């Protein structure tokens, strides 16, 4: 499916979602079909979210590219991801931070955490650790992080995520109502108590369930 992957990446460049060569190369390397349930693999290189079970989805490729470009990822960084899904976004980030960097990704649904771990191991991403925990609490044991991003939407930015961000670090998360359009917000930590935020436009993500997100009901 390499030809389809290349065609998709070229389209994302044309539309302006991919802006840098390093993001382009990362998305060319990661086999998205390996992070999708077998019944949907024929749709791997359509620019759309796809169901992965448990009411969750794998993000559309243009959104993965947008996340990576906005975070301005560098080799050697320590990253926290909220919402592993099947591990695709984590794999692209893992390419960008290289073997000297490390990504910790949280997933509250055990079956998905197991699948993400299997997918990432099978495709050779040894610089990713999958955690079956409530991601809205962050992961204090490895804080502070250079970058934090979420693949699910919360009613407001979870305070633990802000607390666990390095000074100068970036946090990217969708904020807004569960079932409606949300706003993608990028937060930069200026110092111990000061944060600067800006909005990047409307998005639609599944809800972030947890202590500092939406209640499970």
Secondary-structure map:
Elements: H1 2-14, H2 21-29, E1 50-53, E2 56-58, H3 61-71, E3 78-82, H4 88-97, E4 102-106, H5 110-122, E5 128-131, E6 145-150, H6 159-163, E7 165-175, E8 182-189, E9 195-203
Parallel strand pairs: 3-4, 3-6, 4-5, 6-7
Antiparallel strand pairs: 1-2, 7-8, 8-9
Spell out the helices and strands N to C: HHEEHEHEHEEHEEE
Shape: globular
Helix content: 25-40%
User: Could you name the CATH homologous superfamily?
Assistant: Vaccinia Virus protein VP39
Strand order of the biggest β-sheet: 5-4-3-6-7-8-9
Low-confidence stretches: none
- Biggest beta sheet summary: 7 strands, mixed
Tell me about this structure:
By secondary structure, the chain is α/β, with parallel strands linked by helices. It is 28% helix and 25% strand. The chain has helices at 2-14, 21-29, 61-71, 88-97, 110-122, 159-163, and strands at residues 50-53, 56-58, 78-82, 102-106, 128-131, 145-150, 165-175, 182-189, 195-203. The strands form 2 sheets. It has a 7-stranded mixed beta sheet with strand order 5-4-3-6-7-8-9. A two-stranded antiparallel sheet has the order 1-2. A hairpin with a 2-residue loop joins strand 1 and strand 2 (56-58). Helix 2 crosses helix 4. The longest helix is centred in the first third of the chain and has 13 residues, at 2-14. The protein is globular and about 50 Å long.
């Amino acid at each position: 499916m390499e030809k389809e992957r290349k065609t998709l990446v070229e389209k994302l460049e044309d539309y302006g979602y991919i802006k840098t060569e390093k993001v382009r190369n990362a998305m060319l390397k990661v086999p998205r079909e390996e992070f999708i349930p077998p019944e949907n693999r024929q749709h791997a290189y359509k620019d759309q979210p796809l169901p992965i079970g448990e009411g969750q989805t794998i993000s559309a490729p243009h959104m993965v590219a947008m996340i990576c470009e906005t975070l301005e990822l560098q080799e050697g960084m320590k990253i926290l991801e909220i919402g592993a899904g099947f591990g695709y976004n984590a794999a692209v980030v893992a390419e960008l931070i290289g073997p000297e960097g490390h990504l910790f990704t949280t997933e509250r649904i055990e079956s998905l955490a197991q699948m993400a771990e299997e997918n990432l191991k099978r495709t050779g991403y040894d610089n990713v650790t999958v955690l079956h925990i409530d991601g809205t609490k962050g992961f204090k044991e490895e804080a502070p992080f250079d970058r934090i991003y979420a693949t699910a939407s919360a009613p407001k930015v979870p305070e633990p995520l802000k607390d666990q961000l390095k000074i100068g670090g970036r946090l990217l998360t969708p904020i807004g109502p569960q079932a409606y359009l949300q706003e993608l917000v990028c937060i930069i930590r200026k110092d111990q108590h000061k944060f600067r935020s800006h909005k990047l436009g409307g998005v639609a993500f599944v809800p972030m369930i947890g202590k500092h997100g939406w209640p499970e009901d």
